[in-house]
Write a structure and sequence with these properties.
- With 339 residues, this protein is an alpha/beta fold.
- It contains eight helices and ten strands.
- The protein folds into two domains: 6-90, Chloramphenicol acetyltransferase-like domain (Chloramphenicol Acetyltransferase, 2-Layer Sandwich); 130-338, Chloramphenicol Acetyltransferase (2-Layer Sandwich), CATH 3.30.559.30.
- It has helices at 44-51, 93-107, 121-129, 133-144, 175-188, 192-208, 251-266, 273-278; strands at 10-13, 21-24, 31-34, 67-73, 80-86, 212-219, 238-245, 291-297, 327-334, 337-338.
- The strands form three sheets. Strands 7-6-8-9-10 form a five-stranded mixed β-sheet. Strands 3-4-5 form a three-stranded mixed β-sheet, with helices on one face. Strands 1-2 form a two-stranded antiparallel sheet.
- A hairpin with a 6-residue loop joins strand 4 (67-73) and strand 5.
Length: 339
């Protein structure tokens, strides 16, 4: 995998340079470390996670690949544990799905069936040569120039935290509600994502006491990234502000306006969040927003693994994603269900 994909051989350098740069090495050795776990009560997986908690354990950005593996035999059970650490600078959720699918193909003797790897430099070129900075500035100034106060639901303002103390709640939407949401989206000619964004905007308005609200939306980043972007590795996603005016306008009109705002935002999906914030009336260092909505289509880990699969006998123990924003709603679309 490391030899196939340039992003897995990428490091970051900045010392002595006028601006940071990505450097792709011709060769990079994947590090696999074996550690010994304490023979005590409790889960070996939990101990492994604690030892390599990203809040304390740092990946050296100057040494590729920014991908590490740690293995350990779990005391008392005899099973082996594998912990994968991937720095967000070189990958997103789709990156993990593609990488795991390719690993499965190699283990299954189907490496020859893999398509040619898509170089990450294609996205760099797209971002640099596509919509220029002046067009980005004009768009975000139109959207945000009159926003002079941050949107801080429940008074949450710390956007530079490390995720410690965070709590997660998960809920699968009832099928009947899921079906009704999809029916309404079809009736209005909008996406389900637009309905979710408007609903989250209502939460922002009620919890912040503001009618004009701004929150971050996580953009897929692959819609306009060229052919083959759906199977490329690398950090494509981007977080940008979406502004909604919840001023008593009817629900249907608000849904259509939200849909139009999101459609317009897609043309700027590779713009800088720092640029967008500068176009608002919120003075630095105050944040423009402190909440996110992450709407994404998801494939459950180890989906499709059967008894004859090369990964049979392996058990998925879980994963952890963290953001510095204090409030996040993730809407995961799983086939015909929403979580």
């Amino acid at each position: 995998m490391v030899d196939r994909h340039d992003i897995l051989r990428t490091a970051f350098v900045w010392e002595g340079l006028s601006s940071p740069a990505q450097v792709v090495w011709r060769k990079a050795v994947l590090e696999v470390s074996e550690v010994e776990l304490d023979d005590c009560d409790g889960s070996g997986a939990d101990e492994l996670r604690r030892r390599f908690d990203p809040r304390q354990y740092r990946i050296d950005l100057g040494r590729a690949p920014l991908l590490r593996f740690v293995i350990a035999r779990e005391p008392g059970s005899g099973r082996w544990l594998l912990l994968q650490l991937l720095h967000h600078l070189i990958g997103d959720h789709t990156t993990l799905e593609v990488m795991h699918a390719e690993v499965r193909a190699v283990l299954d003797g189907r490496a020859h069936e893999l398509a040619a790897p898509q170089p990450f430099r294609n996205l760099v070129a797209q971002a640099r040569l596509g919509v220029d900075a002046k067009a980005h500035e004009a768009f975000f100034q139109e959207q945000l120039a009159d926003i002079d106060e941050p949107t801080m639901p429940f008074g949450l303002s710390e956007v530079r935290g490390d995720g410690s103390g965070s709590r997660e709640a998960r809920r699968m939407l009832p099928q009947a509600l899921n079906d009704r949401l999809r029916q309404q989206a079809r009736r209005l000619g909008v996406s389900l994502a637009s309905l979710c964004h408007l609903a989250w905007g209502q939460v922002m308005a009620l919890s912040s006491g503001r009618e004009q609200v701004v929150f971050g939306t996580v953009l897929f980043g692959r819609m306009h990234a060229g052919a083959g972007a759906d199977r490329a590795l690398g950090l494509f996603i981007n977080t940008l502000p979406v502004r909604l005016d919840l001023d008593g306008t009817g629900v249907e009109a608000s849904v259509r306006t939200t849909h139009a705002r999101l459609s317009e935002l897609l043309a700027h999906e590779h713009a800088s969040l720092a640029l967008a914030q500068r176009c608002s009336g919120v003075a630095a260092p105050a944040p423009l927003f402190s909440a996110l909505l992450n709407y994404r289509h998801n494939t459950p880990a180890m989906a499709g693994v059967g008894t004859s699969d090369v990964l049979s006998g392996m058990e998925w123990l879980g994963s952890e994603e963290r953001t510095n924003y204090p409030l996040t709603l993730s809407v995961e679309i799983l086939a015909r269900h929403s979580a």
